[in-house]
Amino acid sequence: MPDPQPSIRFLVVGAQKGATSWLFYCLREHPQLCLPDKKREPDYIGGPTYRERGEAWYFGLFAGQLPGQLAGAVSVDYLFDTAAADEVWRVAPQAKLIAIVREPVDRAVSAYYWLIRKRLIPRIGILPALEQGLRDARSGTKSPFAELLTRGLYARQLTPYLQHFPAEQALVGVYDDVAADAAATI
Predict the structure, then answer these.
(1) Which of 22, 72, 113, 168 has the fewest CB atoms within 10 Å, i.e. the most exposed one?
(2) What are phi and psi of 11, to 5 degrees?
(3) 3-state secondary structure (DSSP) of residue 99
């Protein structure tokens, strides 16, 4: 019978548009790992859904865990929501952290086109979008345009995790390595 509250053994806290979906699907194929049934970006430890529904709900995402499997999850919002680091440390201090970061300008361009496909922003051109993002970020306005820039501030985002977790529990990879040789990276 599965543990009603599995021990979270790993979390992928990578950058948006940094191959986190690819990593999720690779990890889901491994028979010794248990991940939620689908990639659930907003459903992360410390996030809004977690705060609303609670720990029991979160750990219910691992109901299919088999004996001997290691439980883990993937969300780009772990990295972006730096306040989540405190709750992650409280709930899963033994967890290994995996982050894949991407050159910030390339990441922003990829995110811009992704936001357009999702119809979350209008197609105004990458430079006007980045300029709007800079204005919004400087003024403290939360917007998808601001996130084009602020989601690439990796030092700011990783620091809260590295203040809690020892360096040997963290692995930071680079998107270019995935793009160059995905099999070697995994």
Answers:
(1) 168
(2) -135, 130
(3) strand
What is the C-alpha separation between 59 and 30, in angstroms, rounded?
Answer: 20
Q: For 47-100, what is each residue's pLDDT tens digit?
A: 999 999 999 999 999 988 999 999 999 999 999 998 899 999 999 999 999 999
Contacts with 84 (C-beta within 8 Å, 6 or more apart), sequence order: 44, 45, 46, 47, 77, 78
Query: Which class for 145: exposed (0-12), middle (13-18), buried (19 or more C-beta within 10 A)?
Result: buried
Rg from Cα positions in the chain: 17
Count of residues making up the chain: 186
Q: Where are the alpha helices (DSSP H) in 84-174?
A: 84-91, 104-117, 126-139, 144-150, 154-164
- Sequence-distant contacts of 107-110: CB under 8 A, at least 24 apart: 107/15, 107/16, 107/17, 107/18, 107/151, 107/152, 107/175, 108/133, 108/148, 108/149, 108/151, 108/152, 110/17
pLDDT at 5: 66
- Within 8 A by CB and 6+ apart from 150, the residues are 80, 133, 137
Location of structure tokens 């204005």 = 135
pTM: 0.88
